[in-house]
Specification:
Blueprint: E1 5-9, E2 14-22, E3 26-31, E4 39-43, E5 47-51, E6 57-59, H1 83-87, E7 101-106, H2 107-110, E8 114-123, E9 128-137, H3 147-152, E10 154-168, E11 176-198, E12 201-223, E13 228-242, E14 254-264
Antiparallel strand pairs: 1-2, 1-5, 2-3, 3-4, 5-6, 7-8, 7-14, 8-9, 9-10, 10-11, 11-12, 12-13, 13-14
């Protein structure tokens, strides 16, 4: 599949080809089995998408009149068709589930001074996915969701986030898809630590702190188009290990929220 370009037509046919040119109306290509042969031309209205030899998918017609094969003429005798041909049923193509990868930015984290990118990879026919996140914080202070750290540590400042999640999707046919899963998240921060007291004056040094949490996440993916998606989610759980805080803050739940705009490819 990665040695040739494949054209998916509105008649649910696959054309193995070498694409030469795409203009405003037509697509010019060579038959993959006869590269030295003639150049063919097909209208863009008859092509749903092209899957190139490098694995990249380009949607040509995201609103085709039909993706199902036309019914056979009544004059054609199906008894003369090969047995295998009678058993094969071509299903309509779902453009919104063609691309398994999504790269997105968490717009909600921007309010906290975080620039957070998320990568999602769909698995098993979009019944399951894995997620990775990484973010760097430009805020001079701890945000509202981490006020218990700011109250426990002097001049606490978040540095970065890193996380990994696994999600399960009960349904994968609708353009709005619900998911539930587990998210593990590591957060690094620094703060001023008192190292000594001299003449009633506290002597500080800059130290590093961390928090590791496991959370249950719930959310929805909105497949607006084959290439543009956004998702919203909320994750709730508890820290399983962290730099020591005030006793009254031990066991405080961990919350992470997301509103992500992403490109699917």
């Amino acid at each position: 599949m990665f040695s040739q370009d494949v054209l998916y037509t509105t008649g649910a046919n696959l054309i193995s080809a070498k694409v030469l040119e795409i203009n405003s109306k037509d697509i010019k290509y060579k038959d993959f089995n006869n590269i030295e042969g003639p150049t063919y031309v097909i209208s863009k209205t008859d092509v749903v998408l092209i899957k190139y030899s490098n694995g990249v998918t380009e949607v040509i017609n995201d609103n085709p009149p039909t993706l199902a094969p036309k019914a056979a003429e009544s004059s054609v005798s199906t008894s003369k068709l090969p047995v295998k041909a009678n058993l094969v049923e071509k299903k309509p193509l779902n453009l919104y589930y063609l691309n398994n990868n999504m790269l997105s930015i968490n717009a909600l984290a921007l309010a906290n001074g975080d620039v957070t990118l998320m990568y999602d990879r769909d698995l098993f026919n979009s019944k399951m996915s894995i997620s990775f996140l990484g973010g760097y914080n430009f805020n001079a202070h701890m945000g509202g969701l981490n006020m218990f750290i700011a109250d426990s540590k002097d001049k606490a400042k978040k540095k970065y986030d890193a996380g990994f999640g696994i999600n399960f999707m009960p349904r994968n046919t609708k353009r709005v898809q619900y998911f539930v899963g587990l998210l593990g998240k590591y957060m690094s921060y620094d703060y001023d630590e008192v190292v000594s007291i001299s003449n009633n004056q506290k002597i500080y040094q800059r130290s590093n702190g961390y928090q590791l949490a496991i959370m249950i996440s719930n959310g929805w993916i909105f497949r607006v188009s084959p290439n543009f998606n956004f998702k919203v989610f909320g994750a709730f759980g508890a820290p399983i290990n962290s730099t020591e805080l005030r006793p009254e803050y031990r066991g405080v739940p961990k919350v992470y929220l997301g509103y992500c705009f992403g490109y699917r490819f």
